[in-house]
Write the structure tokens for this entry.
Amino acid sequence: MAVVEEIPNVADDVEAQEVAAARKEKITAIGVPLGTALGLLLLWEAGVTLFGVPTYIAPAPSDVAVAFVEKFPILMQNFWPTLFESVAGFAVGNIAAILIAVAFVHSRHVERAFFPIAVFINTIPILAIAPILVLIFGPGITAKVVIAALICFFPTLVNMVRGLQSVSDQALELARILSASRSEVFWKMRLPSSLPFLFSALKISATTSVIGAIVGEWVGADLGLGALIIESTFNFNSPLLYATVFMSSGLSVAMFAAVSIAERLVVRW
Amino acid sequence: MLAVEQTIQADPVPPPQRDLAASLQGASVRFGRFTALEDITLDIDCGAFYTILGPSGCGKSTLLRLVSDLIPAASGDVSIFGKTTEQARLAREFAFVFQDATLLPWRSALKNVELPLEIGRSRGIDIPAGNRSPRELLELVGLKGREDAMPHELSGGMRQRVAIARALVCQPKLLLMDEPFGALDEMTRDRLNLQLLDIWRETGTTILFVTHSIAEAVFLGEKVVMLRAHPGRLREVVDIDLPAPRTIKQRDSQEFNRYCGYLRDLLETC
């Protein structure tokens, strides 16, 4: 009886130690980068105060925080259009890329005809093409969505083509032995095996779509985080400029996190 | 015996024929100018266990791919249960087990076994459902309780057993196996060999089993088909007359080793 009781105790102890070790590991994993960031902010604050740097050149973190709180309604007012443009551009660009990738995989001729064009469009600097698109689509929201879509398009196209082609030869032989149709091969084999590749591309475009929207707003807009960046720069309102920059990167991080969560839910293998 | 006599009495004209699972008549396979298989004439008896052995590059896998309609014959004839290979493929007369388990990684073990039942259903193709359900087949291969496991959670041997269950789900009359245990360690391979013999006895299916191991070929096969290389030709079909059911112990017997020795000599002259 005593022996029987001792064994689970030992096991419990080991388990408790493991849990404690895991918790410690987790705390370090979060604590170290967080501490480093805080340290850098403090250094920045101290540096600005010590050397008496004027606020319009480099505001102290505390100034930025004050601007963030005071100007929060303005920031949010400009946040929503950028969010909409980024998400819409993300959706349009990726859906287009996925559909074209499917066409490429099913027809070598289509790939031969259009892949060089896709590469060419990708090589045009987005800053050069943005004014052209604003000229075409006007100062409204459409041009920004198109720019964001364009910047998302290429990474997804390339990854999706690779993903759809990543089915092994043996899996295709299995499909042939089962007399599977082209659409069955697509839905049951090609599409699922492309998902890890697709999500890698979506993670890239989640952040770049925000860049696309902001670049579009730079060229011509009265609302949006990009417009606010231009405006606060011209007014030497550096604390607001910095707050806007943080807001923009926050948007990118949020979109990236959303895609990561979706990936974890979908790709479970 | 009685049944044979009755058929002869009923229709005395045709001679009593062997039931053939597959029949190759002078079949050749060419890849461009390279001849992979030349003039293969081979009859595969229904319900028998054939192992295919030969030096590398002799076209062992090509032979299975020819029978399974993955590659066409350049000349000669291949028939499976009296049908063309394409007809047999569409009727799911045969199933294939690859060297790599080829499971779809996003499907659970059970879902992988169910795959052949799903394919073709939407097009109204009549899929022969076996007398065993996918769950029962997983039990047959010793994976009861692991139905929901994902392929990456299973060992190599377990994955191959899922692949075997998948191959059996349409109750094929002919099972083609291309070095299915080639990548496994010896202990696992021994265990799966015995399990495969059990499955063979229980299902009564015909098996064509490619291997590069002489011991495995002798242990499993009732007949060993020996091929020679450059070009791939039939060398000899060796009857293995060892008592059934086969046991691991038999591997130490003189007879077993005599067969292995004979095949080894044959391989060297191939």
Observations:
- The radius of gyration of chain B is 19 Å.
